[in-house]
Structures are given as structure tokens and as C-alpha cells.
């Protein structure tokens, strides 16, 4: 636990001092909303279309963070240092996934209101509690799978390419869950609670991949 | 030393015989479907191909897990060959699937069929297996990372089917379902024989590729021992373990 906190603190400090990844993710998300405005030629959107635009934008913005997640470890010998330290290797997975989860939360704290302002037709207010639940569950999937994929991709020669092509199909079920869960919330006069089926599928996906990543992560560090 | 060639001849003959019988049953025994007519017969190839490919992916994941447990490279090679063959069967599934979709629904691609859609996602994921292997140079790391991928992707197969199936609000009316009891006995028999035939074909091809790979490795090892290091041409960088 102490190892997790130490690595997490290092990652957050690095981000706070350098401002490398998060601002890029946020800017990317906002630019993508503008692109969707022109691409769809719509001033406001609602319902399933809005949910799709929001979740796809968040997914692609998350991909930027996922690509960068282990780059510092790889380039500056963090992996070797971590392996030399007498600590549990899974701590790196937990710390990195938590860091990515926190990045995604900060991203959404800014990007979701921006989406409400720029594109969303119905007001965000009544949908917010349900949306937070769906996005939080989706973020866990993005963080866990993103960390796993990033750890695989960072050791390959074409890591910027390998990351997304493995990550996107693996994240598709999570994307389906987020988009379909958020769809009814963002409809005009929509419901205020997300459909239970999608919350359940997202939760199942989170749990299975968290266990699976925990089981295989050690093998990615063995050198 | 495992000899993959053992029993290969018998297995090949059994696969050829079963597939011949299956095709004979498909064309001469199974009744014509009242709704779809002759084109429905592609079902006897398409569905066994799909089931075999999916089982092959999961099989590759299990073999990958064995590599991670033991660290013995033969498990990685087995896992690679299992996924390689499953990919080929998967391409066959997608091709026959689109032909069937065009014939019975009038479109080459139908999103409302959850099985076809999930299969496409699984194929998109496994299509990255070879690029992943190719972009890792160190052979030991290549085996390890590919095995991790195989385990994760193998577990992804059933999960993905759950998610995509739930995403369809109404399932397209399917003429034939595996679980449904609406398959007449003669069709079920034909289907089962085809399934056994395709599964035997998969096993035969898996054994053939394993035999070829292990023979090549043995020849290289013998040449190196007898004629010295220079007699063996260095391997080119490859996605395939060897």
C-alpha cells in the first residue's frame, strides 16, 4: 500500500510540475467537440447521439493519456529502479491505474460541463448523478485496461501504434456500456437514472479486467 | 522432444472423410429451408467455422497461460499456431457470414446480428496479435508479451459476446439458433457432422504447422551442431516464434 502511494504521488507530482498529459487530453476533448459540431453540422444534440459523441471523445482523449502512461518509466529507467526495489510488482499496476483514473476524472470534470455548454441540447442538471455513476464505472475500465495495454505497448518498437490498435477493441464493450448507459440520461426529458443492465455490464467488465490485469501484470515487468 | 507428426496421417484422413460426409449430408440429406432455400446451406460451413475459430482463440489463451506458468517456449509456439489458425478460420467465418447476410437479409453487413458483430470485434482484437509480436524484437520478451495478450484476449472473447448481445434491443429473427430446439433432427445431425469435420480440420492444420515448425527447429539445431554456427542462416525478424 505504501508503495502504491509513493508511485502514485510521484506520478501526480510529475503531472502537477510538468503539465504534460492532462492539458493535452482536455484540449483534445474540447477540440473534438468543436469538430463534432462541424462534422455533424448540428448546434445541439441529445439522446443517444449526444452520449455517443461524449463517450467517443472521452475514449480518444483517454487514449492520449494511455499512450504516455509508462513513457517516463521506459525512457528514464523507472522500470529498472522499480524492479530493483524489494516491493510487490502489482503495486505499479495499482498506482498507474489510480493515476490514470484520477486523470480521467479531472478530464471529465472539465470536459463534461464543456460538452453541456457547447453541444448538449437538454440541460445537464438532472442527468448529472446518473452520468457520474456511468462515467465513473467506465473510467475504471479505461484505467485498468489502459494501464495493461500501455504496459504492453511501451516495450514495443511502434508503441504509439500498438497501444490504440490493441486498446480500442478491448475497450469496445466498455464503450458500449458507457454510451448506452448515458443515452437515456442525455435525452430531452430523459430519465435521471441509467439503465441497470448497462451499469451491471460495466461493473462486471471492471471486475473481470481488474482481476485479469492483476493476474498477468507481473509478467510484463519480468526482465 | 515432442513429435507432432505422430498420428498426423490418420487425423488428416479422418478430417477429409468427415468433411466429405458432411458435405454429402449438406447437399443431399439436409432438407431445404422453407424460408431461405438453398443459401441457408452455408450455415453448415459458417457456424462450425465460427465456433472453431472462437474455441481456437480461447485455446490459444489457455496455451499462453501455460507458457506464463512454465516459461517453456514450446507453449508459446503452440499458442501462436492456435491463434494463427483461428485467425484464418475467422476470416472464413466473416466471408461466409457476409455472403449469408447478403443472401438472406439483402445487405452485406447487418449490425443487428449480435453474433456477427461480436465476431468482428474479436477479429479486430486478434488481428493485432501478429503486429504486436512483430514489433517486439527480443524473442523471450516477444513470447511473454504475446502470451499475456493471448490470455487477456482469450478472456475477452466471452465477455465481448455478453456485452454485444445485450446491446441489441431486438435480436434479428434468426432462422436457426444453436440452443433453440427449432432445428429439425436432420439439420441438427448435418450440423454436428460439419462441426466435427471443421474441428478435425483445425486440429490437423494445427498439428501440421507444429510439425513443420518443430522439424525446422530440429534441422537448424542439428546443422548448427554438425557444421558449426556459420552454416545456419540467421533468422529474419518475424512475428512467428521459431
Could you explain how this protein is built, in words?
The complex is a heterodimer of chains A (223) and B (242). Chain A starts with a helix and ends with a helix. The mean pLDDT of chain A is 89. Helix content of chain A is 78%, strand content 0%. With 223 residues, chain A is mainly α. Chain A has one domain (2-221). Chain A has helices at 2-18, 22-40, 47-68, 71-75, 78-84, 90-118, 128-153, 159-182, 196-221. By secondary structure, chain B is an all-alpha fold. Chain B has one domain (8-227). Helix content of chain B is 72%, strand content 0%. Chain B is built from seven helices and no strands. Chain B has helices at residues 8-29, 43-70, 73-105, 114-126, 129-134, 139-167, 185-227. In chain B, helix 2 (43-70) packs antiparallel against helix 3 (73-105) and helix 2 packs across helix 7 (185-227). The longest helix of chain B is centred in the last third of the chain and has 43 residues, at 185-227. Chain B is globular. Chain B starts with 7 loop residues before the first helix and ends in a 15-residue tail after the last helix. The mean pLDDT of chain B is 85. The chains are: A mainly alpha (223), B mainly alpha (242). The A-B interface holds A 148, 152, 155-158, 161-162, 165-166, 169-170, 172-173, 176-177, 180, 197-198, 201, 204-205, 208, 212-213, 215-216, 219-220, 222-223 and B 68, 121-122, 124-125, 128, 131-132, 135-137, 141, 144-145, 147-149, 151-153, 155-156, 159-160, 162-164, 166-167.
Please give the domain count of chain A.
Answer: 1
State the total count of DSSP E strands of chain A. 0
Count interface residues per chain for the largest interface. Answer: A-B, 31 and 29 residues
Apparent shape of chain B: globular
Quick overview:
The complex is a heterodimer of chains A (223) and B (242). Chain A is mainly α and 223 residues long. In chain A, 78% of the residues lie in helices and 0% in strands.
Amino acid at each position: 500500500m505504501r508503495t502504491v502511494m509513493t508511485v502514485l504521488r510521484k506520478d501526480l507530482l510529475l503531472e502537477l510540475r510538468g503539465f504534460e498529459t492532462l492539458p493535452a487530453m482536455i484540449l483534445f476533448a474540447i477540440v473534438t467537440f468543436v469538430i463534432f459540431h462541424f462534422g455533424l453540422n448540428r448546434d445541439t444534440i441529445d439522446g443517444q447521439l449526444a452520449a455517443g459523441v461524449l463517450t467517443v471523445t472521452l475514449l480518444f482523449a483517454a487514449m492520449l493519456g494511455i499512450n504516455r502512461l509508462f513513457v517516463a518509466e521506459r525512457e528514464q529507467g523507472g522500470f529498472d529502479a522499480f524492479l530493483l526495489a524489494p516491493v510487490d510488482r502489482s503495486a505499479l499496476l495499482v498506482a498507474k491505474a489510480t493515476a490514470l483514473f484520477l486523470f480521467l476524472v479531472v478530464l471529465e470534470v472539465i470536459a463534461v460541463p464543456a460538452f453541456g455548454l457547447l453541444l448538449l441540447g437538454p440541460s445537464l442538471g438532472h442527468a448529472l448523478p446518473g452520468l457520474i455513476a456511468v462515467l465513473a464505472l467506465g473510467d475504471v475500465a479505461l484505467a485498468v485496461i489502459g494501464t495493461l495495454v500501455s504496459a504492453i505497448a511501451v516495450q514495443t518498437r511502434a508503441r504509439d501504434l500498438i497501444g490504440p490498435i490493441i486498446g480500442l477493441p478491448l475497450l469496445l464493450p466498455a464503450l458500449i456500456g458507457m454510451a448506452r448507459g448515458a443515452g437515456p440520461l442525455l435525452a430531452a426529458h430523459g430519465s435521471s437514472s441509467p439503465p441497470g443492465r448497462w451499469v451491471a455490464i460495466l461493473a462486471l467488465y471492471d471486475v473481470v479486467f481488474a482481476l485479469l490485469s492483476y493476474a498477468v501484470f507481473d509478467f510484463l515487468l519480468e526482465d | 522432444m515432442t513429435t507432432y507428426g505422430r498420428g498426423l496421417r490418420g487425423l488428416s484422413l479422418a478430417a477429409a472423410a468427415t468433411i466429405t460426409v458432411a458435405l454429402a449430408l449438406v447437399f443431399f440429406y439436409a432438407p431445404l429451408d422453407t424460408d431461405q432455400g438453398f443459401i441457408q446451406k452455408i450455415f453448415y460451413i459458417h457456424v462450425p467455422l465460427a465456433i472453431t475459430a472462437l474455441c481456437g482463440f480461447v485455446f490459444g489463451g489457455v496455451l499462453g497461460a501455460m507458457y506464463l506458468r512454465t516459461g517453456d517456449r514450446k507453449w508459446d509456439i503452440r499458442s501462436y499456431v492456435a491463434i494463427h489458425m483461428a485467425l484464418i478460420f475467422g476470416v472464413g467465418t466473416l466471408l461466409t457470414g457476409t455472403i449469408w447476410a447478403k443472401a438472406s437479409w439483402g445487405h452485406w453487413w447487418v449490425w443487428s446480428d449480435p453474433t456477427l458483430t461480436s465476431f468482428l470485434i474479436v477479429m479486430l482484437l486478434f488481428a493485432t496479435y501478429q503486429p504486436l509480436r512483430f514489433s517486439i524484437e527480443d524473442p523471450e520478451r516477444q513470447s511473454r508479451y504475446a502470451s499475456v495478450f493471448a490470455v487477456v484476449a482469450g478472456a475477452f472473447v466471452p465477455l465481448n459476446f455478453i456485452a454485444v448481445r445485450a446491446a441489441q434491443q431486438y435480436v434479428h429473427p434468426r432462422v436457426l439458433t444453436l440452443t433453440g430446439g427449432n432445428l429439425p433432427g436432420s439439420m441438427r445431425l448435418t450440423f454436428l457432422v460439419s462441426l466435427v469435420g471443421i474441428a478435425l480440420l483445425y486440429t490437423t492444420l494445427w498439428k501440421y504447422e507444429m510439425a513443420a515448425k518443430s522439424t525446422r527447429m530440429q534441422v537448424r539445431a542439428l546443422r548448427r551442431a554438425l557444421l558449426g554456427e556459420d552454416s545456419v542462416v540467421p533468422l529474419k525478424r518475424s512475428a512467428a516464434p521459431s
